[in-house]
Amino acid sequence: MALRNAILATLLDGEASGYDLSKAFDASVANYWTATPQQLYKELESMESLGLITARVVEQDRKPNKRLFSLTEAGHAALHDFTTQPAKLTAIRDELLVKVRAIDAGDPAAVHQAIADRLDVARTKLARYDAMRAHLLAGRTEDDYLATSDRIGPYLTLMRGRAFEQENIAWAERTLRILEQRAAR
Amino acid sequence: MALRNAILATLLDGEASGYDLSKAFDASVANYWTATPQQLYKELESMESLGLITARVVEQDRKPNKRLFSLTEAGHAALHDFTTQPAKLTAIRDELLVKVRAIDAGDPAAVHQAIADRLDVARTKLARYDAMRAHLLAGRTEDDYLATSDRIGPYLTLMRGRAFEQENIAWAERTLRILEQRAAR
DNA sequence: ATTGGCATGTAACCAGTTACATGATTCC
DNA sequence: GGAATCATGTAACTGGTTACATGCCAAT
User: Fold this and answer.
1) Does residue B141 sit in helix, strand or coil?
2) With b meaning 16 or more CB within 10 Å and e meaning fewer, what string describes B13-40?
3) Looking at the C1' of nucleotide D7, which residue has the nearest alpha carbon?
4) Which residue gives the smallest C-alpha to C1' distance to C19?
5) What confidence tens digit (pLDDT) does each residue in B115-128 have?
6) CA B167, B32, B158, B11: dihedral to nearest 10 degrees?
7) Closest CA to B104 of A33, A27, A116, A83
8) Which of A29, B10, B53, B74 is most buried, most CB within 10 Å of its CB?
9) pLDDT tens-place string over residues A97-121
10) Residue A9 near residue B102 (C-beta atoms within 8 A)
11) Predicted TM-score (pTM) of this structure
């Protein structure tokens, strides 16, 4: 159900193929939900059979044909209904944090490296988010954008993802410093 | 596997029952992993049969007996090994953000309420984290603690969870303000 | 020649959620 | 008298990951 709603919300941006969606939900760019291509193709089929989305086939030259999905009336209604349902607590689950928690009984150098890797990933994602932000703003100031744009959902979630990566960076930098001081004792 | 490692890391704090662990992994307090009691009892059984943990039964009066689990040598080794394995990207999956993304086609009042609910939860969690932090520091300054404590893993993950809730609060407050301004147009 | 992008899927498996079940004690 | 806490589990289901499969085109 959760993936279904994320797909419906994404299709508000306009029609998309399974492949398009698999890029949007890829863990390296996603800012509100992730999913693998396998999950998506399966879910799209079931959503189509339920009438929540419709597909049209686009023939391309030098590229495989693709099926572009878009929301139906029923899909819109289902999405609207979803926004009125109570949300449950979000579970924090982060393998890196499990490693950090275990650092005192683990391999400090390996955990140090894992944090450094996360720092790299976070910096890359932050740069991507900033590029997406500039693209959404399209030259307008934030205030102007928020006051005039007909859609603000994508901007608001992007800002949450951005803050998350900024926090990752700040935490990782500080944690690496602490570990280095301890290692130098 | 992931839950298994989280349990091993938690048992570094000392022996615990399934019930104790179910409280530690409850979504309302967890700062690095969450799990339900059902998951835990099942996983603990399998970990015991693999020799990663051992149980001792403690008889209590006016309370049911309990089984306290602790790490074995093999469990310690498995945890150490885990810290050396490459970590994969953490998936962002947040139902609230799906709602926010869909707000332009959804029920704005309901989404507003959902964000306000999240804000409450985040404030509660932050207060809890601060209490845990004070408990860990036990009167010492942070610098003193980091320099002298034999374990720092729990403190470092707690600080990440704390930053996460602070970001939740800042984002939610700002987002509510934006939505209210739009509603007042 | 090989890697990477475009485009779509099947199958087997593993992890997580929800519902159900039991029973004593303590607190309001 | 009813809800919350302590303490442990089974069973059915839903959701997510990993491995495997195909085939063309563009770029290095």
Assistant:
1) coil
2) eebbbbebbbebbeeeebbbbbbeeeeb
3) B64
4) B38
5) 999 999 999 999 99
6) 170
7) A83
8) B53
9) 999 999 999 999 999 999 999 999 9
10) yes
11) 0.95
